[in-house]
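Incident log, structure service

09:12 report received: a user says their structure output differs between two submissions of the same chain.
09:20 pulled the input from the user's history:
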Amino acid sequence: MIKGINHKGFHVVDMERSLDFYCNKLGFMKAFELNHPNGEPWIVYVKVADGCFIELFYGGTEGVKNRADHICFEVDDIYETADQLKKRGVALEDEISQGRALNHQFWVLDPDGNWLEFMEMNPESLHMKS
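09:34 re-ran on a clean worker, output below:
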């Protein structure tokens, strides 16, 4: 019945700053925008992959978020991904590590303090065996 995760939503303080981060630094693509029923700008969708989006909502407030509230992007090569992000000016919040499920990951913060996890799946991980 459930096919996968379609999107993750974040409220953002500065839409242009967030679009620069997600599109220019992470390499995703702005897909489309929706206006609120009252006509005001409401949501900008950023395409991560086919059928997978990030919803950026206008009207966020400054503040650091809890790391448990995050989105995780699966990557083919964790070291190459980290190198590319560093070259684009994205700071890693911690270095690449192997998690308890055996996958390798690192974390970054977006301009609004939302946690983003990048993970390379280990064929022996619990994720791959489930």
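09:41 both user submissions now match this output. Likely a transient worker issue. Closing.
09:42 reviewer note: The helical segments are 15-25, 78-87, 126-129. The mean pLDDT is 92.
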